Predict the 3D structure of the following.
Amino acid sequence: MEDNLQGVSCQPAQTQSDVLAAMEFAAKVYGPNYFAAKRSHDRILKLELSSKPENFILARDKSGSIVGLARIVERELLLPLSSLSVGGISTVCSHPDWKGRGIGIVLMEKALSYIQDRKYDISLLFGRRAVDGYYSRFGYEGVSCHMSMRMEIVSSDYNLALPDGIQLSSPCSDDLPSIQTLYESASVSIPVRLGRTLVAWRLFLERLEDTPSSSELIVVRRGGTITGYVILNEEALAEAAFDENRYDLALAILRDTVAMGKNSGLLIIGLPMQHAMSKWLSARNHVVHLRRCEDGGHMVRVNNPIGCLHKMKNCMIKRIESAGLRPFSIRIGDINYFWNGVDLQIREADLGLGQNRCGQKETYDCEVDLAKNDWAKLLLGTHFPGEYGGYSVSGRAGIFYALFPMLWPQFSVVDEF
């Protein structure tokens, strides 16, 4: 690969002119419609707060021409009682004449090096299906967990008609603060999600206006006041929020949308299980489909394992207390956990098995020998605790279940970058 890349340098952009040149390069590469791609990238430069020169990693040939690009995107992942800093990766591309010569690998390694230096807790990317398996080589784990509830219209036991006084419309920019408020209210019970701001909504709205999309955002009004919204994606309900939990309105909108489509007669609700509407539907007649993707889709890489675990400490304590675990000590991979019934200590096993920082011997209720980073997969929820023996300390709940809450991040089309 080194022979294929002789004379190629890979460094962050230095000036805003470099950034403009990089986005012009991306628009040409991402075609086939250059003008649509150009509008998309211009929108990113206008609205994306992390569009700073240092977040554009550029590969240049001997002449100084850009032949590859990777973009770092700054986000926040919200957890119960805490949050993780995110260094996302987007817009990874190379010039057609340089494809297959390893530029993508060099760009990814350089971008991850900067993400590591800046001490982001995790890195996140949204991989296209065409590149499934590619990002796994860089330590990314697929965390996509696509849950869908399917209901037949004829089996519904309640009225799906929209009541009088309800108006449906496309959104405008003035609607976004109300939509954001509704979103926050409906999403409070979802355990892991990206922090979403008005900027993310503006990017999504302009994306819908500028380019053909399989997604649709519908605003629900009563008497001129916004009372809810739904996002449909390929005839499925991808997101919904309503005042007073009026999710019967979401079903009515979904029914009218799919009545003439390929899923005629079948309502598909693709919301997280913890979403208020999913709970509202749980007593109705439905079938749940669950699909996971380990080597593509939404992918996460743990950059700062100890930092992540310490930020999750309060969440872990809450789970341990609810599980009723007695005091324990356990080593998982290179991490030691000590629970004394009140507090949880988390630290690296830097002095060898069974020794604390004073060199004294410590005992372990159970010891687990996992391959490198496997414990991080537990943290991300990509591996089930049962795959590692289902250890139980108190008899009431497994220790893995208490330490690692199976935190599948929930992402929407609005969150993709």
User: Anything to note?
Assistant: DSSP finds eleven helices and 19 strands in the chain. The chain has a mean pLDDT of 79. The longest helix spans residues 16-30.
